[in-house]
Amino acid sequence: MGLxxxxxxxxxxxxxxxxxxxxxxxxxxIKSMFLGLVTILAFVCSPIWNSTERMKKLTHFFMFAFLGxxxxxxxxxxxxxxxxxxxxxxxxxxxxxxxxxxxxxxxRSKVINQLTGNFFSIRLDVTRKIFEELPWVRSASxxxxxxxxxxxxxxxxxxxxxxxxxEGSKLINQHGELxxxxxxxxxxxxxxxxxxxxxxxxxxVIELYxxxxxxxxxxxxxxxxxxxxxxxxxxxxxxNGMTFELGRDLDQKDRGQLKARLNxxxxxxxGVKENLPNKIEYIDLRYANGFAIRGxxxxxxxxxxxxxxxxxxxxxxxxxxxxxVTRFNKATSETASKMTRHDVQKTKLLDGRxxx
Length: 356
Fold this sequence. Notes:
By secondary structure, this protein is an alpha/beta fold. It folds into 3 domains: 18-82; 83-156, Roll (Ubiquitin-like (UB roll)), CATH 3.10.20.310; 164-350, 3-Layer(aba) Sandwich (Rossmann fold). Helix content is 40%, strand content 20%. Helix 1 (18-44) runs antiparallel to helix 2.
């Protein structure tokens, strides 16, 4: 349905219909007639039959008023002819892509009955609002096509994820705007991200989501879930199974700290990964001088929480630090292998950071 020949721009100022133009002209005509009547009264108070000049002016006034009324009636009669009745509506996409959810059948069932007026009298701003009330329409612009048609340019909603709230799930687009549709119609969209956060935080969540996607490019992973707690603490889950606790984000300074924490993690991650026996599923970046990681549990092994100090983080890629990490992991493994199950659970209770 998209047309390459037209790139309609939505007009912010409403266009005047023919009826409005004619009503304005009729109002000015009535004012002129009123002034003429005042002039007539002035003539009545004086012997106009003895004044040729005044009689000419009076005659000209009546002639022009009569011709104006006839012209107005002719225009009104022509405007009501069936040939100008709107019976053609052409749909097109503003981004030159095929419209998925907006089609002619939907327009016939939901829009046609709400349109009033013909080619001359239809209000384009009202028509635009009618189209924008359709579930999958983000914005629309309308223009007339002679003699009985309309071209409607539509920007269709493009969901990037689901927004969870107490009122139920809604879709959210790349602009951070929530919209309500039949969720069954969104099944064709794959890889929708799960979003959640306090009321009116949807645009802020989308903003950080777009930044995180850029920041995680070196990690070769994409976000599958992003949540903002009531205390403005961020949690992100990736498509590789990892969960990141990013910490609080109250201002631009905190946003810069999030970026710095991720950069620090990406810097030492290759060296840390080689020295860990299990797959990592949880990473906590809320520490000022390091981060904590947790691997997946196996039946015969214990889930271990490792807190890396700043000295290891800064030199994680150097040989000396790699030796430190190796010795640390080796000692931890030997200790864990000697523990009984009772000792393991006792140790986990004493640990300051419990496994989730």
